[in-house]
């Protein structure tokens, strides 16, 4: 068993666990953010914004997990240096962009809650997540360029051989 194959199995196990946890969070967001029994609270109107945004943001994470799984399958089959792999990486990049848009939309309700409750940390959470998401997006763009280069080099080598 090659070194890459020994790393793929644990990574797949982590991806399955992560997918399950994200799915659980989606359920908890929908169930847990419902207005309480004591009637509507001060920010109940924001729940109609926050719940769909949270579910969409977590859905973006799930899409990235599925794309990563597909790329791992290509690695195992030694097909990673192909145009198909670039399509999966493009899907990851565009999903991260969509996630950042969802996160930007979540900043407004977070800012309203932070301002009203004098809790600046609430507004800092989407900001921090946006910075991390932006770093991952830029990293994926660099990785895509490297994959493109490696794909071109491999096809050139195959043409020579």
TrEMBL record:
Task: Report keywords, A-Z.
Answer: Membrane, Transmembrane, Transmembrane helix
Q: Which residues form a coiled coil?
A: none
Report if keyword Transmembrane is assigned. yes
Q: Which domain of life is it from?
A: Bacteria
> Which InterPro entries does the UniProt record give?
DUF2975
Q: Where are the transmembrane segments?
A: 12-33, 45-76, 88-112, 124-147
Keyword hit for rRNA-binding = no
Short name of any one Pfam family annotated for the protein: DUF2975
What name does the UniProt record give this protein? DUF2975 domain-containing protein
Protein source organism = Pseudonocardia oceani
């Amino acid at each position: 068993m090659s070194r890459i194959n020994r790393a793929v199995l644990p990574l797949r196990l982590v991806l399955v666990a992560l997918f399950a946890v994200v799915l659980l969070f989606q359920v908890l967001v929908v169930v847990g953010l419902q207005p309480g029994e004591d009637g509507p609270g001060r920010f109940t109107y924001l729940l109609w914004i926050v719940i769909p945004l949270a579910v969409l943001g977590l859905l973006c994470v799930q899409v990235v997990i599925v794309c990563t799984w597909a790329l791992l399958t290509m690695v195992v089959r030694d097909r990673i240096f192909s145009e198909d792999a670039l399509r999966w990486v493009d899907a990851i990049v565009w999903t991260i962009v969509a996630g950042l848009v969802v996160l930007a939309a979540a900043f407004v309700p977070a800012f309203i809650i932070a301002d009203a409750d004098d809790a600046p940390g609430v507004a800092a959470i989407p900001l921090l997540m946006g910075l991390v998401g932006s770093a991952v997006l830029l990293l994926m763009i660099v990785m895509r360029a490297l994959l493109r280069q490696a794909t071109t080099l491999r096809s050139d080598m195959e043409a020579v051989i």
